[in-house]
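S1.2 Input.
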Amino acid sequence: MRKLGSRALSAVESLGFHWALPTYAVLLVFSLALALCLGAVDISIPALLRGTASDLETLVMYEIRGPRIVLAAIVGSSLALAGTALQGLFRNPLADPGLIGVSSGAALGAVTMIVFGSVVGLGGWFAPYAMPASAMVGAMACTSFLYYYSARKAGFNVATILLVGIAINALAGVLIGFLQYASDNRELRSLVFWMLGSFGGANWTTLIPAIAISAVAGTVLLAQGRGLDLMQLGESEAQYLGINTNALKRWVIVAAAAGVGVGVALAGIVGFVGLVEPHLVRLTTGAGHQQVLLGSALMGAALVVMSDTIARTLVAPAEIPVSLVTSAIGAPFFLWLIWRSHPS
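S1.3 Output.
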């Protein structure tokens, strides 16, 4: 009976791979096409393909909407991948990139640049990269502190990583509060809008390095599927089965920090994607991390692209912060998941 159940589970997971992942890929393509067409200026994809689009449509496509859509897809994919990997690593369904302080560290770096950027007076070729670079430095600084503190004091224990992440979040929140207090009205408005998330500032200059970093981080996370599967048995059991658990923790945490750091640096904090997306994908693909990681990357990109489309078209020509849209979608879904888990 146990063998039959195991075979049935394998069959279900295999079926999930055959239909769920292509479905997510189609949904992503549809969301990209919809995002490209809709906006303050409607764009005809057939006209673009035929080369008969107007100069205005071409300009909006290549200089405004194109980089914005690509950034939204990158951020959604990175957040969902990081959330899936961290939930598997910590064996905690509530784990997300914010849990280990990555998002808070990136936010602290970006807020610091918003408040003190005019004092520092960075200009020239580095000006477009100033805030993204500051956010990346903040994310990697918090991740490095998390890594070395946990490794030296507790042998890189999962529980210690979580506790140190909570402390980093609290400390970063205090520092961000001080910076908000010290900022003037213009800086405070820019700071608050940035922290709510927006893809309005996307451009190819900052996007090309982000694509490279996100691609490397995503490839590293996708390669950890088998190790994360075995980690569900327990850390000791995974070691007995040949997994270098310390190396797995390093790869997952550093790659998650890099991917999330890039996203937060360029778009601000986008909520609920890394937390909710893995649960949604597991409903259709099964629990195997190789499928869940790939499905989360596709579904995360589709969700954030669609959320950004809603954010910029719902009250056009004004724009809603994208994190409000993702939270409005994610929170009810998360409540439904809790209800589904405890029907009585």
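S1.4 Remarks. The two ends are 28 Å apart (CA to CA).
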